[in-house]
Design brief:
- By secondary structure, this protein is α+β, with helices and mostly antiparallel strands.
- The chain has one domain.
- Helices cover about 20% and strands about 5% of the residues.
- It has a two-stranded antiparallel ribbon.
- The chain is elongated.
- The N and C termini lie far apart (about 45 Å).
- Bound molecules: zinc ion.
Length: about 60
């Protein structure tokens, strides 16, 4: 049966949701990219690596 997308998003793992909306306690070890954060995107980056979305180094 067809499921409404919002129903799928509500039950999908955070890694499959893209926008991170409503997710503030993701169990991911790392830092949020400040550049993406300014644009409203929560992108988790491992300290010392570069953001996979915009390439900003995160320490
Ligand atoms: Zn970024």
């Amino acid at each position: 049966m067809y499921q409404h997308p919002s129903v799928i998003s509500a039950t999908a793992p955070p890694s499959m949701i893209g926008n991170g909306e409503g997710i503030t306690t993701m169990p991911v070890p790392g830092r949020r990219c400040p550049a993406c954060l300014e644009r409203g995107n929560t992108v988790w980056v491992i300290p010392g690596k570069c953001c996979p979305q915009c390439g900003t180094p995160v320490n």
